[in-house]
Amino acid sequence: MQNYRIAPSILSADFSRLGEEVQAVLRAGADWIHFDVMDNHYVPNLTIGPLVCEALRPHVALDGKPAIIDVHLMATPVDRLVPDFARAGADIVSFHPEASQHVDRTLSLIHDEGMKAGLVFNPATPLDYLDHVMDRLDVILIMSVNPGFGGQSFIASALPKIAAARQRIERYREGSGREILLEVDGGVKVDNIAAIAQAGACTFVAGSAVFGAPDADGGYSGAIGALRGALPRH
Length: 234
Prior knowledge:
CATH architecture: Alpha-Beta Barrel
Largest sheet: 8 strands, parallel
Distance between the termini: 8 Å
CATH superfamily: Aldolase class I
Shape: globular
CATH topology: TIM Barrel
Number of domains: 1
Number of helices: 9
């Protein structure tokens, strides 16, 4: 199993001071910065794009060491955006198979641009796409809410889906020797992160659970520490 990673989603951050927010969560112990891109077509919301990613890139670092920018594209068509995010400094780009006319080609494009590639599964999207592209994947992202808005509650039926994705990853690893990260996004909180990890996830997107943490409870450091402390020991 991989080491655990906490990836705060800036969808829940204060947009008037994103640079400061990113720095604050990295100092508080975040591993990645999760960057949600919504286009008001694939999902009913409009957020941020490559220009904001490029502006944030210098801030996504701690003690001079760059941290991972994990871009989640909830947009269509995706191929047009991939080169823009590569130039903006993204490290990982994940997309929904429904948003690409040719999933394999999009994964190849992401790799050709020098980034890691991920595939995202909505609650109602079957894992069958994995049958054909495991050799192209670096990340599998399971949505435990319907995408489009932050602050939603975790959908419990995501747990068996996470477990099924983990089984596929382990079978692939045994045959190939290559690791694929299993990420979960949506309603991740202190009271369910252990169950999500036990189902097989190693990377956890947390938005309101981190950026909504009250100062009285330790703020961002307290929130990330509590999430990490609730995880089962390897």
